């Protein structure tokens, strides 16, 4: 006769209650583990105050230590809170969404539609919110602005301008900055600039001129064919550039000169003070350059070499092979790349190791940090590191993880917690799901089967066996 739904629920309730018994029995021990892999796993170190929960393998995660709390439902969202750093961060559908509060400043985004930012400077706050095509905000002076792009709108203290106004953009727009103003009609075709420091106009692409008094001036005719620019007029080394593009381009100053013929076929540049000299024949296929403590050559993606001071860069059939070498303040860093795989070494004075990184993409990634932290992960999803992805996405693919901290504490996990091992000072513990667990401590060792249905524990000359949670004590030897 088939089992009814009520009977199934009743048996499930009994199973859950029985499985919780070991957690009460172990409540006074240092390490507490409640394991129903892959549905639920609770692990707590009562000595260090660390606790974590995993559910459905890597999908649900919760962790708490002395300073930080974090929990998430991967890959939907992940929350991190750190009291010492005054940090609160929520990532959702990462990398498309994120909200972060740190030291009183708030910023967030939902790519590509929405952004939010709130900041405080010297006791004054400013904020802005955008949900395309709407936007609204307030500057440090307490002045409000808002708009509906591209219909109408006003922006204050944004994009390097004091004020920006637009109506049916690109039909009409105007901006002001430091006493100067610019008006655009049918941008980019018609533009007019004036004010205390600047003047100019543009009828693109036929003719335009612009001048920043005492600093720069420029003009063009039939852009980009004819143009003439002069900048840095307020310095001892003004730069003048003019062109009949692409036939000839000239750029020169008191110490620098560059000429281009039939761009991009030939370009030659020279700087007198540093001795820098460069040839492009043609760009970007072939380049050679030299200078004080500088030399380099590049032949498209086939071969490239650059040496500058104590740094070197080499590539062959980019991105197939690459090599970087840097030396700064007795610290030497070397990086070897083959496609998306990478080996990096960091050494200090007298060859002292500062760090190591081995990434054989997509098989594994192994890092040794200068702090002494070590991590090993299998199946590294992307050929680069990004902390947000390491919280939200990468654990879904790391079927084996191993880590070691500067104090020598080691933790490892296989198949998202099916096998788990923890080694700390005074503790060595491993378990396979809810089937078997072994714990070794200075005072003794413990073997547990089926989460305590059978349990053997030995401390000194005293042994204890629990069968269905009923204890039987034994004493070995004689006193």
Descriptive overview:
The chain is mainly beta. It has a domain at 1-58 and 431-479. 6% of the residues lie in helices and 58% in strands. It contains 2 helices and 46 strands. The chain has a 46-stranded antiparallel beta sheet.
Task: Give a brief rundown of this model.
The protein has 479 residues and is mainly beta. It starts with a helix and ends with a strand.
> What separation lies between the terminal Cα atoms?
59 Å
Number of helices: 2
Query: By helix and strand content, what is the structural category?
Result: mainly beta
Q: What global shape is seen?
A: elongated
Taking pLDDT < 50 over at least 5 consecutive residues as the criterion, the unreliable ranges are none
Radius of gyration: 33 Å
Helical content stands at under 10%
Provide the fold topology.
Elements: H1 5-25, E1 31-36, E2 40-45, E3 50-55, E4 60-64, E5 68-73, E6 77-82, E7 87-92, E8 97-102, E9 105-110, E10 114-121, E11 124-131, E12 134-138, E13 144-148, E14 152-158, E15 161-167, E16 172-177, E17 180-185, E18 190-195, E19 198-203, E20 207-212, E21 216-221, E22 226-231, E23 239-244, E24 248-252, E25 256-261, E26 266-271, E27 276-280, E28 286-291, E29 294-299, E30 303-308, E31 311-316, E32 321-328, E33 331-338, E34 341-347, E35 353-360, E36 364-368, E37 374-378, H2 387-392, E38 400-404, E39 410-414, E40 419-424, E41 427-432, E42 436-441, E43 444-449, E44 454-459, E45 462-467, E46 470-475
Antiparallel strand pairs: 1-2, 2-3, 3-4, 4-5, 5-6, 6-7, 7-8, 8-9, 9-10, 10-11, 11-12, 12-13, 13-14, 14-15, 15-16, 16-17, 17-18, 18-19, 19-20, 20-21, 21-22, 22-23, 23-24, 24-25, 25-26, 26-27, 27-28, 28-29, 29-30, 30-31, 31-32, 32-33, 33-34, 34-35, 35-36, 36-37, 37-38, 38-39, 39-40, 40-41, ...
């Amino acid at each position: 006769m088939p089992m009814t739904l009520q009977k199934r629920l009743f048996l499930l309730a009994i199973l859950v209650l029985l499985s919780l018994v070991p957690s009460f029995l172990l409540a006074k021990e240092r390490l507490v583990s409640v394991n129903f892999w892959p549905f639920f796993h609770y692990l707590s170190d009562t000595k260090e105050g660390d606790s974590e929960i995993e559910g459905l393998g890597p999908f649900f995660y919760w962790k708490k230590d002395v300073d930080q709390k974090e929990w998430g439902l991967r890959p939907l969202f992940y929350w991190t809170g750190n009291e010492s750093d005054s940090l609160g961060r929520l990532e959702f559908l990462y990398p498309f969404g994120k909200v972060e509060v740190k030291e009183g400043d708030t910023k967030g985004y939902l790519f590509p539609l929405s952004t939010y930012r709130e900041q405080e400077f010297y006791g004054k706050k400013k904020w802005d919110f955008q949900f395309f095509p709407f936007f609204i905000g307030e500057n440090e002076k307490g002045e409000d602005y808002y708009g509906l792009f591209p219909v109408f709108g006003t922006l204050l203290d944004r994009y390097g301008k004091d004020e920006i106004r637009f109506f049916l953009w690109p039909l009409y727009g105007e901006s002001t900055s430091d006493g100067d103003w610019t008006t655009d009609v049918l941008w980019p075709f018609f533009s007019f600039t004036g004010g205390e420091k600047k003047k100019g106009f543009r009828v693109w692409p036929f003719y335009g001129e612009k001048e920043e008094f005492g600093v720069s001036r420029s003009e063009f005719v039939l852009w980009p064919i004819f143009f003439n620019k002069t900048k840095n007029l307020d310095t001892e080394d003004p730069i003048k550039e003019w062109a009949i593009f692409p036939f000839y381009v000239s750029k020169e100053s008191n110490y620098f000169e560059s000429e281009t013929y039939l761009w991009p076929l030939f370009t030659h540049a020279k700087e007198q003070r540093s001795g820098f000299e460069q040839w492009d024949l043609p760009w970007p296929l072939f380049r050679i350059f030299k200078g004080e403590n500088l030399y380099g050559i590049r032949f498209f993606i086939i071969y490239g070499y650059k040496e500058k001071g104590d740094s070197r860069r080499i590539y062959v059939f980019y991105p197939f092979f690459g090599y970087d070498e840097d030396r700064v303040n007795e610290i030497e860093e070397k990086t070897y790349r083959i496609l998306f795989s990478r080996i990096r070494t960091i050494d200090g004075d007298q060859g002292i190791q500062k760090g190591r990184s081995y990434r054989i993409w997509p098989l594994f990634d192994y890092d040794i940090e200068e702090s002494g932290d070590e991590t090993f992960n299998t199946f590294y999803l992307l050929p680069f590191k990004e902390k947000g992805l390491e919280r939200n996405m990468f654990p879904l693919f790391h079927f084996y993880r191993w880590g070691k901290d500067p104090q020598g504490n080691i933790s490892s996990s296989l198949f998202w917690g099916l096998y788990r091992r923890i080694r700390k000072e005074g503790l060595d513990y491993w378990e396979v799901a809810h089937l078997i667990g072994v714990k070794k401590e200075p005072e003794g060792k413990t073997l547990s089967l089926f989460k305590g249905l059978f349990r053997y524990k030995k401390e000194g000359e005293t042994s204890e066996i629990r069968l269905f949670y009923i204890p039987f004590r034994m004493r070995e030897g004689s006193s």
